[in-house]
Structure formats: C-alpha cells, structure tokens
Amino acid sequence: MSNYIFKILKNASFGKMKTAVKTCHERSGKNSLKIFFDMLYCAKKYGAGYYDYQIFAFYNLNKKQRSTYVTRLVSKKLNTFLNDYTYDHFLENKDEFNELYKNCVRRGFIQLQKASKEEVREFCESREYIFCKMQDLECGHGCERIKISDYDNFDDLYKYLKEKDFCILEDNITQHPAVSKLYPNAVNSMRIITMLDSKGEPHVLYIVQKMGIGGSIIDNNCLFTPVDPETGKILYPAHSGDTIKGIIYEEHPETHVHLRGYTIPFVKDAVKMVLEAAKVTPQIRYVGWDVATTPNGPEIIEGNTFCAHDFWQLPPHTPDGIGMLPKIKEIIPEFFCGGKEGIKRNFDWLEK
Questions:
Q1: pLDDT digits (tens, 9 = 90+) for 279-333
Q2: Residues 6 or more apart in contact with residue 330 via CB below 8 angstroms
Q3: Residue 109 backbone phi and psi in degrees, to 5
C-alpha cells in the first residue's frame, strides 16, 4: 500500500490541484487559501486527493459526513482487502469470462483466436452485425460494432478482425425498447456492484443506469444515474460521466426523456442474476457488473474487478451528504477493524 501512496504523490500535479482549488472556490464561494489547506487536511485524514475533494464537494461537508466516503485511498484498500487478483483473469479475460458465466451471458459468441476460419465465417454470415471485443481491455476500449455487409467479402472482414487482434466476436445486443428510448445508439447498461460477505453471501451495494451521449456506441463515461433495486425507478437526475465537470441532467440532452422516476425494466431479475454470478468466483468478492436489459430480460455484458469509487457518491445523488462506507460496514464489518489492509477510523457515530 505504501507503493500505491507513493505512486499517487508522484503523479500528483500542483497545476491540477490549483485548478481544483479554483473550481471549489467558484462553486462554494469560500476562501481559496482555506480550501487549499482543507484539501491537505482531507488528504491526510480521509485519503481524499484534490480530485475526491472536488467531486464529492468536501467543502460543503462536516467531519462526520466526510468520514463516510470511499475515497481513492480507501477504494484501493477495499479492493485489495476483498479481491484475490490471482483470480481476476476469470473476469478480465473476455474469452474466459464468456465461458465461465455463459448462463448469464446468453448471447452467441465465438473466440476468434481459437476458432477456425470456417467457424468464423459461419458465425459472421448468419448475422447482420457483430460486436468485437479486445482481450483484457475495460470500459469499452477497443470495442467495435461491425456491420457485415460493409465488407465486400468475408476474406476482407476476416483479415480486418485478425489484424485488430480481437478476442471475442459476439451477437449485437438488442436492448429493451424502454432502455433504447433513453439513448438508441448504444447498449445502455446498468452497473451493479456486488460484495460477498465473510460467509460468502452476496449483496448488492448499488445500481446506476448508464446512458450513451453524442453518437457514442458505448455508454462508458457518458451519463449515469442511480436506480432503485426494488422498483427499477431512476432516483435522481443524471450526472456527467466526467465527474469533474459536475454537470447535472434532469433529462437526456438528446432524447429529452425525463429521467427521475423513469422505470428500467427487469431490475429485480438483474439483481437476482448478479447475486448468483457473484458466487461463481468467490475469490473476487467485489465486482462491478455491466448488465444489459433486453426484451427478454437482463444479460451480463462483463464483470469489472476494480470498481471506480467516484460515480456512486456524488452530491446530486447523496442529498444527505453520506457516502457508501456505512452500507459497506454493514456487509464487511471486518474491513473497519484495522489490520493490514483495513481502515481504522472512529465510526462510533454510525451506530447511533
């Protein structure tokens, strides 16, 4: 962990910190010098860098509220505490993932590097579109949606697929009309975070609905908003995927669908699905699942073994100024007892 802290300090930018201080001053009206020293205090006390301080609006929170946030340093400790990364290849390698979790994947797929050219031909020629993924990349990086008829012949398509070094070719997911209505150009997936407690029982920590924007064919770093796991209703306005910008959307800026109160279908089914999936690789106790909503129900797209901590504790979605640590404490109380990777703070007030 000391190496991780050193890496953070090494990559810290005084220029970016100065910009963060300026932004916090503009948003709060508070003295810039006081914000600067408060940032330093929060870095030492809560493991919150200037990025955390800005996006979580720490300048508006008291000490009790600040102590409930999963900051960057706490997030790293939590991931290390819960996940044995010698097993992460089962989720990170797309070919292994599709095989191991095929009951939750459901869509057709083929492993490009293992299949014969004729098998790939048969797969492609029976489909109008295919979705192509790279082996170990996350967040949609390197993915392409290919229309088969855009190629004059299969040989040209096959040459392109091999040159790009895709690992998995999949069916293009058809999403539920109610979800497509939010944004039609991408599969708008839910990010559902699960945790296994010390007895191996899975729990859902939170759900956000992601949405594409601006012609993107993927939904990462676009828009997102929390979803009620019981009702499937969107709870708050959406937030910009670039969390530093802090832009809030009451409606999708392109489709103009009003978001708060909008119902996402099959959310309870999606919860049931990820709770089962969470038990498949119990050595990875903390997973962020990307789940598509199709006309026939939910379908897992992928599982992420390192979960970003920022987009589930933002001011528009935490009106009481309380972060996620109290809920995590209910699931993983042993994390709060100190030790090698745990954290040790005064959480007595959480019991009240």
A1: 999 999 999 999 999 999 999 998 999 888 988 899 999 999 999 999 999 999 9
A2: none
A3: -155, 160
Longest dimension (CA), the chain: 68
Which helix (H) or strand (E) segment is 207 a member of? strand 202-211
What integer best gives the mean pLDDT of the chain?
89
Q: Dig out the tokens for 336 from the structure.
A: 């709060």
Q: How would you class 275 by CB atoms within 10 Å of its CB: exposed for 0-12, middle for 13-18, buried for 19 or more? A: middle
pLDDT for 5 equals: 45
- Residue 90 CA to residue 100 CA, distance in Å, equals 7
Rounded distance, CA 220 to CA 188, Å? 9
Helices of type H across 149-291: 154-164, 177-180, 267-277
Residue 62, exposed/middle/buried by CB under 10 A (0-12, 13-18, 19+)?
A: exposed
What does the pLDDT look like over 37-89, one tens digit per residue?
999 999 999 999 999 999 999 999 999 999 999 999 999 999 999 999 999 98
What DSSP designation does 263 have? B
Question: What is the reported pTM?
Answer: 0.86
Residue 196's pLDDT band, with cuts at 50, 70 and 90, is very high
Q: Are 68 and 56 in contact (CB under 8 A)?
A: no
Q: Is 230 buried (19+), middle (13-18) or exposed (0-12) by CB count in 10 A?
A: exposed
State the Cα–Cα distance between residues 263 and 227, nearest whole angstrom.
9
DSSP class of 313: S
Q: 275, 274, 276: which is closest to 289 by C-alpha?
A: 274
* 3-class SS letters over 101-149: CHHHHCCCEEECCCCCHHHHHHHHHCCCEEEEECCCCCCCCCCEEEEHH
CA distance 64 to 140: 37
Question: Contacts from 38-45 at CB under 8 Å and sequence distance 24+?
Answer: 42/66
